[in-house]
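Our consortium's second objective concerns turning raw sequence data into structural hypotheses that experimental partners can test. To show how far this objective has progressed, the report includes one record in full. It was chosen at random from the queue rather than selected for favorable results. The single chain below, 460 residues long, was entered without modification.
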Amino acid sequence: MFSREKLTATTKAISDRLGNDGYAFANANAIPEVDKEKRSVSFNIVVDPGRRVYVRRVDVTGNSKTRDEVVRREMRQLEGAYYDASKIQLSRRRIDRTQYFSEVNVETLPVEGNPDQVDVVYTVKERPTGALLFGLGFSSVEKLALSASLTQSNVFGTGKFLAFNVSHGTVNQVYSLSYVDPYYTVDGVSQGFDVYKRRTDASRLAIGAYSTDALGGGIKFGYPVSEVSRIDLGVNFESVRLQTFDNSPLSYLAFVQQFGNDYRYGAATAGWSRDTRDSLITTRSGTFMRASSELAGGDLEYMRLGYQHQWYYPVSRELTLLAGGEIGAAGGIGGKPLPFFKNFFAGGPGTVRGYRSFSLGPQDVFGNTLGGNRKATGSLELLFPMPGAAQDPSLRLAYFIDGGNVFAQSFQFNDMRYSTGFAFFWTSPFGPLRLSYAQPLNAKSTDRIQKLQFTFGTGF
């Protein structure tokens, strides 16, 4: 069947393809030949590539605080080179990914008197990149969390990230200092470090009671493999003091009896990621993939592997389909078991909504969730704008179907839990708000249901 929309897309694709080879003003026109008796039509596509042009200058406007080099190092269209539409758009996406700007627009201007030259102008609108915040966070896990943070993701306009965070909640108490230089070298190798002190009180969760006090720090490096993928390497050292209680599961008490309460260990991490999403704030298309690994040695010896995948597909101008999943596997090495506080957990926002956070998976005889060394979760979401606020990208709704669980030793997909419901997302000036209402589809009598779940405020 004839489709004018597909015909227009065809001629545009031809013009865009020629634009990648320097023909900035190429035209492709479809001339129809109609056969009314046969009710058919043929098209003769006439292509006029025009003159091949060079880029004379690449200009940036609107960056009053951010240094010019921070913007220019993201550009892939060079001055003096042939015009390449794909590199110009790639440059725009890379500038947008820095998240230093709320808007990034690009236009191509012909040079008067020089028909074979053009100027490319990027117009940016800077956004606040520093924040001194004191606030409250609410969630179905932490209940109430007090937080304070001093964050600057574009220190003195250099593109470097620096943050000091303090968070005090019913489950987690965190003090952390983080630093990242995304261009430690001119080739885009990043370097950063983290120093933190964290206390976790798991007795307030659905899992078996225990608490940990950790003091640690580490360094990390990132190496760009291509325009959309990179490798991350790091090493972290941590000192942990574990505390169990009279009502702790017997397996927890046995672990402490065998290995003690204090641990000092180091962990090496390695990961690979690939990101082709069109935007980090309001994603409409693209994929995100990440594989991660952690190998620890010292008083604790274990290995953890994980893989995450997200796929966005624009169903229409307003509807976006998101399919995502995550799997993980872990185990002890060197003859030692996997520490129980390094287990995987599932349930709640981010995994399987509709079930209480950290409540899914193997349980002891008293109903305490123990976690597992295998994890599999997935979600299918249909994202759409808030009715009456279609032009506000910070507000979105979603209909979702979640599934997943954690397992001991091996995956048992017959034990997967499923839920469905609606979610509301708001990127507010005070932090992200996530609200969901889910109906479990195959809950068991031992499962802990929590249909309404929410988080508000940035967690640290």
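The partners drew two points from this record. The helical segments are 4-19, 68-72, 85-97, 250-259. Confidence is low (pLDDT under 50) at residues 135-142. Both points have been shared with the crystallography group to help prioritize constructs.
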